[in-house]
Amino acid sequence: MVKQIKQNKNNKVNNINHDSEIEPSIKCNCGLSFKTSGELLDHKHSLEHKEILKQILTIDFNWKYRVRLKLFFYCIVILIYNKMKDEDFKAHLKFGNKYELEALNYIPYVKYELNNKSEYDIKSTTKSGKHNYYEIKADRYIHKTNNICIEYMSNGVYSGISITKANYYIIFSIKHDVIDEVYKIPTKFIKKYIEKNNLESIRCGYNKLSCCYLINKDVFKKYKKHLKPPQTII
Q1: Would 170 be classed as within a structural domain?
Q2: Model-level pTM greater than 0.85?
């Protein structure tokens, strides 16, 4: 009986050894050993998943890098554009301000005030104490097109002739930085002419942000003034 028990135990040990001989340990290309092919398969799947994850992370990093780089250059371009635009606006404003002072040669006054608001540019006081208001315009294209632009809207808001309190428009035609012609036109005359005629409307002014009526300069021929020195703006 004891011998039979010992034989059974020996048989179990032999079976275990036999099983281990059937499926010995398997080595992976990475150098690791696995007891079963199933474990090796799981390991290979794990490596594949890690490789895929690595590729996804690399793609994600490259995408974020490209977006940030594009945003950086976009910001640089915007800053440069705004600086150039600001300098252009200052030059445009300086040009207009000089001709406001030049307009004083064509205005009777004992006292005057410059105005930065849109209703008028200059307020003058005569010897009799009467106040007159003036819109001052300088245009480099009148001598080329023979047309005068009268603004009525800017940035989608009524401006110029639509809201002015000025009694007169003083308009300079500029040719090669020299005053070529000067017109001193009653505002009432301009408004009546616009009301009676179907005028062409165009984009005009700084950065083409304004809307203007085009009127042939010959319409204002009787309001043309004789030039007075100085004619060159320095």
Answers
A1: yes
A2: no
